Amino acid sequence: MMDIGTLAERLDTAAFEVEPVAQFDPEGRMPLATAYAVQAASIQRRSARGEVRVGVKMGFTSRAKMVQMGMKDVIWGRLSSSMLVEEGSSVPFERFIRPRAEPEIAFLLKRDLPGRVSEPEALAAVEAIAPALEIIDSRYIDFKFSLPEVIADNASSSGFVVGPWGDPHQEFGNLGMVVTIDGATVQVGSTAALLGHPVRSLVAAARLCAEAGEPLRAGSIVMAGGCTPAEWFQRGQHVRLEMERLGVASFDVG
Ligand code: OOG
Ligand code: MG
């Protein structure tokens, strides 16, 4: 198997040049720690190009996503400044290989959140919560991968749109949501899909990031994971999430 640096370069180049690559470990034999090392090395290349780390995203925190992608472990990835898509703006379709969108809830941290924390501790570190859409785009041909492969590929991170930041001191454990594409409803769901309550995704993020030697810091955004299966979108479409009480996150595809 190729070494960490070579794999990181391959995946980063695939993302940068919008050209998918073949799977390197379809059987999923690579140790997960090695897969995360590939992810870290690929993010290193983004940093070298001037991208700044803005937070992390959780993956497979809902049954809907686990079933859709055939995975059964929670994973995480790194979010950089170039992935942030302004709410309501237009994002060029050319930026993606074969993108999908999924409804999430985002946390903004006001305090560091190191290691093992309880749910109340995690909540106390939250400055604000927001409805959010994640744009995922696998760098592997046909969006097919094993668990180590998707980890190495930064958990398919490509873009994310954050709606209005709201008060975290409200009940947000079971907020309804509707995803529409060009006005047609394509998914309905609830924030309860995330491990029973989205704060559990934040607790998991704190633990996983600390274990990786990169504890969550004040100012970070944490995307809690897709609450429903992801939906393909096409050029020219309008993708919109409306979440009960928290409002709307949307984007146009240019
Ligand atoms: C991997 C990323 C999973 C989520 O929210 O569960 C994820 C993928 O589905 O390609 O972002
Ligand atoms: Mg996601």
Key descriptive features of the protein:
single chain; 254 residues; alpha+beta; 6 helices; 13 strands; 25% helix; 30% strand; binds 2-oxoadipic acid; binds magnesium ion
Task: Compute the CA-based radius of gyration.
Answer: 17 Å
The profile of the biggest β sheet is: 8 strands, mixed
Number of E strands: 13
Amount of helix? 25-40%
Strand-residue proportion = 25-35%
How far apart the termini lie comes to 38 Å
Order of H and E elements: HHEHEEEEHEHEEEHEEEE
Mean pLDDT: 97
Shape: globular
Oligomeric assembly: single chain
The assigned structural class equals: alpha+beta
Ligand types: 2-oxoadipic acid, magnesium ion
Weakly predicted, low-confidence segments:
none
Number of helices: 6
Please specify the SSE layout and strand pairing.
Blueprint lengths: L3 H14 L14 H17 L4 E7 L3 H7 L5 E6 L3 E2 L4 E2 L8 E10 L9 H6 L1 E11 L10 H6 L4 E6 L13 E6 L2 E7 L7 H14 L9 E3 L7 E2 L5 E6 L3 E7 L1
Parallel strand pairs: 1-10, 3-7, 4-13
Antiparallel strand pairs: 1-2, 5-6, 5-10, 5-11, 6-7, 8-9, 8-12, 12-13
Helix pairs in contact: 1-2
This protein binds 2-oxoadipic acid (OOG) and magnesium ion.
Question: Short description, anyone?
Answer:
With 254 residues, the protein is an alpha+beta fold. It has helices at 4-17, 32-48, 63-69, 119-124, 147-152, 198-211; strands at residues 53-59, 75-80, 84-85, 90-91, 100-109, 126-136, 157-162, 176-181, 184-190, 221-223, 231-232, 238-243, 247-253. The strands form 2 sheets. Strands 1, 2, 3, 5, 6, 7, 10 and 11 form an 8-stranded mixed β-sheet that branches.
